[in-house]
């Protein structure tokens, strides 16, 4: 069985092809993956803040769907305020991104992500990661185990320590990205091959 098929069977989470920035920092000798309480205390404040804002936005979206037909202008104002907050948070999160540790994902989902690395990584090494999806108002801090993929410089990071609300945010983001990709594909198919003449 191919390596990717084995991983798909072991990983119950959906993943989608997507390029995002991720910082990876291999753990030093003597460092270990923290337990849930230690992880919670270790997460930088901007990651906790964006997680809470995303949770509030998700709840607001449900309420706004019902309100939209009665007060569309109010809904638009609320959405613009939310967008301003997202922009400020994206700026704050940019300070958490270390260019020396930066990599780019190839795919991501609730169980982990694949990424490119020109520097070889030891099979099974544990990394601390910061995953950034500012356009979806998602930023995740956690730990994972790295495995080499069959293609050179391709690796998979399987999450080993991650808050459940962050996993949920990644799952929602994956589904949103899939919906956008499917919509774009449908629109491309619907476009005529060229201008028609009458």
Cα distance spanning the termini: 55 Å
What's the story with the biggest beta sheet? 6 strands, antiparallel, barrel
Overall outline? globular
The spatial strand order of the largest sheet comes to 2-3-4-7-6-5
Counting DSSP E segments of at least 2 residues, the number of strands comes to 7
Cα-atom radius of gyration: 19 Å
* Residue runs with pLDDT of under 50 for 5 or more positions: 1-9
* Structural class label: alpha+beta
The SSE string, one letter per element, is: HEEHHHEEEEEH
The percentage helix is 40-55%
Mean pLDDT: 84
Please count the helical segments: 5
Strand content: 15-25%
Outline the structure in words:
- With 198 residues, the chain is an alpha+beta fold.
- It is 44% helix and 25% strand.
- The protein has a six-stranded antiparallel barrel.
- Strand 3 and strand 4 form a beta hairpin.
- Helix 3 (45-67) packs antiparallel against helix 4 (72-94).
- The protein is globular.
């Amino acid at each position: 069985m191919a390596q990717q098929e084995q991983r798909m069977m072991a990983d119950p989470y959906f993943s989608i092809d997507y390029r995002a920035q991720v910082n990876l920092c291999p753990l030093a000798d003597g460092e270990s993956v923290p337990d849930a309480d230690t992880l919670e205390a270790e997460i930088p404040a901007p990651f906790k803040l964006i997680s809470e804002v995303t949770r509030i936005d998700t709840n607001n979206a449900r309420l706004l769907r019902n309100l939209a037909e009665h007060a569309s202008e109010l809904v638009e104002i609320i959405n613009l305020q939310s967008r301003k907050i997202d922009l400020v948070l994206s700026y704050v999160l940019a300070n958490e991104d270390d260019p020396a540790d930066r990599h780019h994902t190839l795919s991501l989902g609730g169980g982990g992500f694949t990424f490119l690395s020109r520097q070889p990584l030891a099979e099974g090494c544990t990394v601390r990661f910061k995953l950034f999806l500012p356009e979806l108002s998602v930023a995740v801090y956690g730990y994972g185990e790295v495995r080499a993929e069959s293609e050179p410089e391709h690796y998979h990071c399987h999450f080993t320590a991650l808050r459940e609300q962050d996993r949920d945010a990644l799952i929602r983001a994956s589904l949103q990205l899939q919906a956008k990709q499917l919509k774009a594909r449908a629109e491309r198919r619907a476009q005529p091959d060229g201008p028609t003449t009458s």
